[in-house]
Amino acid sequence: MTEGLDELIKLERSAEEERSKLADLTNDEHDAQWRRWRKAAERAQAAITAHAEATRANRYEVEQAVKKAARHAQQDPTAE
Fold this sequence. Notes:
The chain is mainly alpha-helical. About 80% of the residues lie in helices and about 0% in strands.
């Protein structure tokens, strides 16, 4: 079963949150956080690919829609 769009958005937001934590880290802390970000990003990308394949949608278009929705949700103060 593929991830629903809401779940894809959550995965993308999670990856972006992990990426944002990289700021001002150095050495081992940066390396450890980079690995957490990379793992979250890989999960999001794999879910996007699976969803696109299952729905026969254009993968690039799915990814762009998810990224746009994730950014919009982060800017919306009423969003989770």
